[in-house]
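User: Please predict the structure of the protein below. I'd like the answer in structure-token form so I can feed it into my own downstream comparison script.

Assistant: Understood. Taking the following sequence of 389 residues as input:
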Amino acid sequence: MKMLKKAASVALAAALVVSMAACGSDNGGSGSRDADKFYIGGIGPTTGDNAIYGTAVKNGIQLAVDEINEAGGINGYQIEYSFEDDQSDAEKSVNAYNTLKDWGMQMLVGTVTSTPCVAVVEETHADNMFQFTPSATAVESIQYDNAFRMCFSDPDQGKASADYISENGIATKIAVIYNSSDTYSTGIRQKFEEEAESLGLDIVASEAFTADSKTDFSVQIQKAKDAGAELVFLPIYYQEASLILAQANNAGFDPIWFGVDGMDGILNLDGFDASLAEGLMFLTPFTADSEDEKTQTFVADYEAAFGDTPIQFAADAYDCLYVMKEAMEKADVTPDMSISDICDALKTSMTEITVDGLTGTQISWTSDGEPSKDPIVVQVEGGKYKVLE
């Protein structure tokens, strides 16, 4: 009889353990979560080659969270915030997502770069968790209805770049140097070349490199030079762009350089001679040199908090939090709602709001997660970004 009672007790205990574990997994590891707070996670690279982007996003979110909490929170509830480093790697980004789920995350701001975002959106879609990326531009980054973005998409950047070059008569003979192993770079390049052809621009060279060959650009530079390129379009990140500018200078090649949002940060790159970027133009939704009051307040607060001047990635991330706040208030979201119910509410309310932010005015979203806003073009002049008309 004692053995039967002991066996029954063991079985009951096991059942309780299974039951408790199941309850925790329903809410993404929320067993220890404070029911009176919103848990918002972030993912991006704070170490590795793209650390400047992830760090900017992490800080931009933190600044907005601190402001929102100090002003009373969202619908009267405070925000808990945690950020995980993914080193811009897809597998590590998924691991970071799972870590944040265990922490109790209800909504995700991220990821920062496109390839990890494409991987993580599969996870958020399966969990029906709301995902808002500040800066992942690949079309596939927000391919499901639970995902939205703050930044421009790759096709939008490619088209806008070609349009600007054509409309302003900057050049007609154009070379492109791009990373064929990167979805961000290839997506922009494809749309740019399509739009350039339709506008009568001449793509005289289109030269690729890969992640395994991104230190020596002598071949690509020489081909662009030999083809008589007046302008070189660089749909790449600032690290590789800095090497291209330096190597082109050594080769005596001095075209007009035109980039996209991944170029932001090149002036702050350690060891780079910033004078080589003089005259560089690129698309961006934000510049810290803007004289409007909202931008200057943000820049001053950011510099006071983190000792650094914010780049567009920080501004996009900061905007993300205030957009989420407006959408959550529109939908009367509360922390006791399930992750899926929060997501379903935001899918609707995101398409019903219009926001003035640091990275654009009268920004709205369609149900496919894409924002409606206009880019600006800046040019490096005297070591600073000057907004071009």
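That's the full token string. Residues 2-26 form the longest helix (25 residues).
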